[in-house]
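Exercise 7b. Backbone tokens:
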């Protein structure tokens, strides 16, 4: 009983240590929260000072840079907008210029075909095309629609396409309207036999310009004025001017918007500073509250980890590291304590094993067969366990050695009886697994060992004892011990019968595959027997 008393004292001592750790953790948490409060106040003051200085620097130095960046971004947006319009017109122009039928119709002056396929339907359709100009290689005009008195033959785009057979884009102003022009030589479907010119133009209409206006100024107000012009000399110091050049005319976009973003930033600086400062203060308060919650959560995790420590385990799960210094300190202290506990606990566990082995030896003194049988069964189990790569092999071996320890409570007159056992005597022998389990169950670290002892007479088909477990409901240790136990019993001489030969024993066991034995474990045993059949080890 000494080891039981030692075990109880050990648990009581450990519980007291846990209580001390709880108190220590709460005290450290209070200190940590006080530090956190003062750190929050200090951080708030530094934040406010930084904000004020930062706003001053932005006001004095950042506005110019901001305006430059804003202008570059909007310029890029305007150029991308113009490029997108040209891309749309180019696709439409190429579809009509690189067309064998169109090339033939122009060369043969097929006026009806040209009207239906190259000119009128484009202007009258939903293509947003107002200008069409078609000419042959000899500059004889086939179509001139929408240009009025404007002489398109004087433009650079016309001359370049006609002389160089290239595809060109350009801008032209006709009166007060800007047109996006796309021109390319007429050719066959495969771009061969280039001659003449096909030119079309799309106006910068109100809908298109409104979209361009939204690119420059997303929110239109009355004092935000955006207007296009073709004469830079008329610019009277606008706040922002965007230029889109081309080989003919250029587009100047005058944006009298009073520095929309930069000016807005200047005017709203004080108001925004107030909002930012208020927000920063609120965030600091929220941050302090969140820090309290995080601290409580971390402490809860630490306490849960401490509560989960189980003295029945051979090794304890270590307390993880925590970002909060005070809690991490507690965790380290607990880990150091657990290391010492493991050492003491191992000593207690080994004492438990020694006591149980003494009980086993007491049984072997009265029954020599039991000693030899237990040794043989443990050796066979060791081989099977090694073949199955069982991690707790030492526990399997110990369980095999102790599997018949319960026979210490069976009278020797029954164990060594040569005649057939009576029903009552057989029933008493069948109780030895439960007797053995009752001896070992007080040692909580023996869980799997205990299962091997209690269930080693269960059968895979469910017809065994003491509980009639079936299949894989029978613990692994018990299924392994069952195979080794039966084999050694068959090849051993007993008071009531002679020993079977090894080959005969194997033959009997094969017939019980899936009935008495787990087929997989029996197959492992048979493979070991086949390899070692020439030796006396099995």
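Sequence design result:
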């Amino acid at each position: 009983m000494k080891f039981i008393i030692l075990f109880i004292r050990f648990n009581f001592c450990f519980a007291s240590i846990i209580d001390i750790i709880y108190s220590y953790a709460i005290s450290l948490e209070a200190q940590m929260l006080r530090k956190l409060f003062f750190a929050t106040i200090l951080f708030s003051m530094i934040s406010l000072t930084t904000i004020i200085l930062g706003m001053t620097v932005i006001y004095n130095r950042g506005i110019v840079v901001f305006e430059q960046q804003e202008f570059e971004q909007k310029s890029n947006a305007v150029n991308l907008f113009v490029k997108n319009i040209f891309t749309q017109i180019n696709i439409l122009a190429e579809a009509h210029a690189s067309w064998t039928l169109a090339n033939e119709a122009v060369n043969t002056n097929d006026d009806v075909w040209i009207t239906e396929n190259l000119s009128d339907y484009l202007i009258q359709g939903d293509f947003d095309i107002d200008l069409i100009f078609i000419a042959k290689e000899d500059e004889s005009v086939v179509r001139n629609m929408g240009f009025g008195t404007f002489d398109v033959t004087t433009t650079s785009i016309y001359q370049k396409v006609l002389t160089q057979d290239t595809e060109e884009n350009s801008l032209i102003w006709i009166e007060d309207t800007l047109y996006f022009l796309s021109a390319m030589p007429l050719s066959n479907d495969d771009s061969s036999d280039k001659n003449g010119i096909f030119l079309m133009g799309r106006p910068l209409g109100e809908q298109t310009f409104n979209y361009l206006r939204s690119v420059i100024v997303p929110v239109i107000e009355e004092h935000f004025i955006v207007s296009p012009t073709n004469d830079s000399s008329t610019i009277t110091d606008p706040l922002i001017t965007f230029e889109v050049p081309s080989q003919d005319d250029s587009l100047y976009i005058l944006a009298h918007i009073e520095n929309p973003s930069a000016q807005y930033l200047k005017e709203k600086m004080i108001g925004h500073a107030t909002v930012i400062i208020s927000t920063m203060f609120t965030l600091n308060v929220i941050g302090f509250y969140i820090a309290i919650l995080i601290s409580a959560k971390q402490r809860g995790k630490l306490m849960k980890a401490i509560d989960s420590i189980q003295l029945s385990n051979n090794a304890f799960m270590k307390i993880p590291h925590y970002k909060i210094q005070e809690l991490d300190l507690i965790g380290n202290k607990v880990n150091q304590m657990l290391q010492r506990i493991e050492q003491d606990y191992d000593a207690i566990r080994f004492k438990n094993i020694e006591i149980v082995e003494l009980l086993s030896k007491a049984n072997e003194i009265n029954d020599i067969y039991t000693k030899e049988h237990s040794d043989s069964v443990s050796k066979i189990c060791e081989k099977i366990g090694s073949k199955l790569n069982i991690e707790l092999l030492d526990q399997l071996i110990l369980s095999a050695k102790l599997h018949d320890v319960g026979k210490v409570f069976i009278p020797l007159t029954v164990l060594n009886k040569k005649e057939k056992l009576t029903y009552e005597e057989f029933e008493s022998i069948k109780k030895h697994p439960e007797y053995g389990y009752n001896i070992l169950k007080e040692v909580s670290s023996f869980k799997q060992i205990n299962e091997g002892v209690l269930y080693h007479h269960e059968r895979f088909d469910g017809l065994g004892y003491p509980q009639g477990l079936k299949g894989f409901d029978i613990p692994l240790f018990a299924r392994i011990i069952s195979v080794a136990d039966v084999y050694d019993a068959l090849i051993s001489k007993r008071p009531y019968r002679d020993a079977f030969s090894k080959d005969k024993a194997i033959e009997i066991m094969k017939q019980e595959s899936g009935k008495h034995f787990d087929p997989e474990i029996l197959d492992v045993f048979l493979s070991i027997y086949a390899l070692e059949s020439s030796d006396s080890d099995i």
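Instructor comment: The chain is about 60% helix and 10% strand. The longest strand covers residues 177-186.
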